[in-house]
Amino acid sequence: MSEPQNISFKHYTLFRKAVMNKRTGTLAFITHLGFAGRIPFVEGRLVNWTDRRLLTHFFDQPLQQVHWDESSLEEEGVVDAPLMLAPLFESLQWSEAYAEALRDMFSKLPPVQVESIPLEFEDYHIEICASLLHRQSLTKEDFRPADFFSGVNNPETLHVRLKVVLLTYVCGLMKPRAAHVSKPTRSANHAAASSGIVSRIFQRIKRIGTS
Amino acid sequence: MASRKEIAKILITGPFNAGKTTLIRHISDEQASGKDVQATDILSQFKGMTTVGLDFGILHVDETLDVHLFGTPGQSRFNFMWKILSRGALGTIFLIDSSSQRAIDEGKSMFQYYRQRSEDPIIIGATKRDLEGARPIDVLIRELDVGDTTVIPCDPRKVEDSKTLVLSLLQAIIDRQGGGVDDEDDYDALMDLE
Fold it and tell me: Are strands B55-62 and B30-32 parallel, antiparallel or unpaired?
């Protein structure tokens, strides 16, 4: 069966919101190929008994329907999302069309900052790639996911980079770079003064070893 | 009259033998080891601290700003020094030898000590990843009981890793100062994939 023309990635956003907002409930979905499943969340964490095969399908193919159900679940055998997803992502396979669609979609994201993924991968290609993404987001002004894909023509390299970007995204480790005026606080003046200092130090550290 | 330079302070701490001295060496323009302090005009004010093994480095940022990097001794009996040094610091980098159970045990009590006394930004650098017995990062997070604190695998012998650690701390400081997104709606608008 061919993939739909207009692939939606809304389910990834819903997954990310469940993790970031520490929601409890289930994410119900039906894939384009007819697999149906439910992913339970307890305060933003995944549940150990979740079917790994279905969870893989949630990430490796287009979805027809996705729906969030707010419900109460017992906190039993919960695990942080990165920990459960990392092994799945290492073996994730995408069609070229789906990978390109993912690349296009993530390339539209605004400048982001990326946190380090709190674990290590068995696959050292992914491990190095995750480290590279974190480092680039720290050192490059206005770093965008598009920069991370720039010049990548090798499909294998692209897939590895997409895995890292997707994992970082759905686990809430990717955030928009500071572009907003913060709400005024009592310490706003102090913060503004010290943020200037921090920015100068930031630039200086980036230059170490480059001259 | 010459204008006085601003001084920003960053602490490097954690149990013994984690790479604190090496990190400071990579990030500083001038440094002194606790074991062999060379008193210079700038450093002489810290001379009296040499007997307790303090590492110290200075990074010249520009004409009006220096960063002082303090490496606290790696034994928990010197925790009181951290309390003194942390006053006015931008934040702390906590290094831990992830291959040593003794260091992890020591690190856990040190980290809890710090966390109970300060809400300043702190990040953890997990070192010695190349040694046999190095704990996986997720195991280390559990064993140290560090909650949401960022843990970054690193090798301070590599300049780029040392830079990444300090940049991560600075990013955490910027986030803390309100550089983040105001509310969930803004976040969704920016990061929605549709």
Answer: antiparallel
Distance CA B191, CA A108 (A): 9
Whether the full predicted model's pTM is greater than 0.95, yes or no, is no
Tokens of B33: 């080891």
Which pLDDT does position A181 carry in this prediction? 34
What count of Cα atoms within 13 Å lies in the side-chain half-sphere of residue B167?
26
| Cα separation, A205 vs B28, whole angstroms | 10
Torsion A7-A83-B169-A193 (CA) sign: positive
Searching chain A, which residue's CA lies closest to the CA of residue B65? A197
For residue A27, give both structure tokens.
């994410």
- Which residues from A are below 8 Å from B125, CB to CB? none
* Position A182 confidence tier, pLDDT thresholds 50, 70, 90: very low
Using alpha carbons only, give the angle B66, A111, A180 rounded to the nearest 5 degrees: 75
Distance CA B53, CA A16 (A): 46
Write out the H or E segment, with its range, that includes residue A47.
strand A45-47
Nearest residue on chain B to A8, judged by CA atoms? B194
**ipTM of the complex model:** 0.82
The C-alpha angle B152, A135, A164, rounded to 5 degrees, equals: 80
Distance CA B191, CA A183 (A): 20
Distance CA B32, CA B179 (A): 34
- Helices B137-144 and B101-117: angle between axes, nearest 10 degrees: 60
* pLDDT tens by residue, A26-55: 999 998 888 889 999 999 999 998 889 989
Q: In the prediction, which pLDDT does B161 show?
A: 92
Collapsed DSSP state (helix, strand, coil) of residue B65: strand
The verdict on a CB contact (< 8 Å) between B153 and A206 is: no
